[in-house]
């Protein structure tokens, strides 16, 4: 009897803690750090306040991630002068996998590594890629799971909407 009660309490605690850390629209971007690739300089998302930040969690084995890179390159090249900052956060365990991916699909935007998946856990990443659009005040405004060609215009218009808002 005590064993069952303990199991129930542990399960409730687990689900409560998982939910407590899940990032949702309307929340401030969390204070987690990733490291720029390849120079390993720390990147703190909160230090990017004042810019619209497109955070994309990706992995080398992810087919939709490969499709998203040309879009992010285009978006970055067109809108960086307007205050868009794209950070693509790799979650591969082996950096060599990411390097191989980037040989075929180079990025014109900032790359980061989340080697221990600390930020991925805090953001509650549930799909690859997972995209978080953050406004100039550091608030998560949109979340996209996966990448579909049919959603490109929606993503672009959401980014442009955030860029047109006053800081």
UniProtKB/TrEMBL annotation:
Signal peptide: none annotated. It comes from the Bacteria. Residues 23-164 form the Thioredoxin domain. Gene3D superfamilies: Glutaredoxin (3.40.30.10). This is Redoxin domain protein. InterPro entries: Redoxin, Thioredoxin-like_sf, Thioredoxin_domain, Thioredoxin_ResA/DsbE_sf. GO terms for molecular function: oxidoreductase activity.
């Amino acid at each position: 009897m005590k064993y069952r009660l303990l199991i129930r309490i542990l399960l409730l605690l687990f689900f409560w803690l998982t939910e407590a850390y899940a990032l949702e629209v309307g929340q401030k971007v969390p204070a987690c750090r990733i490291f720029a690739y390849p120079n390993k300089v720390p990147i703190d998302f909160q230090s990017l306040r004042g810019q619209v930040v497109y955070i994309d969690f990706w992995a080398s084995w992810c087919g939709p991630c490969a499709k998203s890179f040309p879009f992010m390159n285009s978006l970055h090249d067109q809108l960086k002068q307007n205050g868009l900052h794209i950070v693509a956060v790799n979650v591969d365990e082996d950096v060599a996998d990411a390097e191989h991916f980037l040989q075929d699909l180079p990025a014109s935007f900032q790359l980061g590594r989340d080697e221990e998946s600390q930020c991925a856990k805090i953001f509650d990443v549930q799909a690859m890629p997972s995209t978080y659009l953050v406004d100039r005040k550091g608030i998560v405004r949109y979340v996209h799971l996966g990448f579909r060609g049919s959603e490109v215009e929606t993503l672009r218009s959401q980014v442009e909407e955030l860029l047109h808002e006053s800081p």
